[in-house]
Amino acid sequence: MFSHHELTIYATVLTDMLKAELGKTKGGLEAITLDLVVNESWKAKDGSKQERQCYYRAPFYGKAAQTIKNHVGQGDALFIQGTPGDPDAWFDQKTNTLRSRNTIRVLRFRFGQESQKNYAARQAAKANAAAAAPVAAVDLEPEIVAEEVPF
Hints:
By secondary structure, the protein is of the alpha+beta class. Helices cover 19% and strands 42% of the residues. It has two helices and seven strands; from the N terminus they run E-E-E-E-H-E-E-E-H. A five-stranded mixed β-barrel has the order 1-3-4-7-5.
């Protein structure tokens, strides 16, 4: 009997991409892992607003890892399709609760609208920072010393 599970999530990136580093697998592929959250909210029968977060960890490999590193930032949205991996569970001593996070093996991903807007804003900020940065003066003409002239 054939069985196949597939997840489709629209998640927000929690990983600070400035601190994230591209790693390498044993086979030499580039790899990066993102922490993601899916927020769910609804109104209860009594009219009160209820919220729940589901946390995921998603590893990306090869060209996808490079794309994620270059184009995704913290707070961006990603549409991810994949298969479920092994869940992690741990006890959070600060909140005194049992926490869990699922792993998703990414098959396909797309950038959400917020990712595209944030990417454009980050590119504009980089351009502004580069334009505002002082340019170091470089002397292209070497200093000529009279004793070094052969004639």
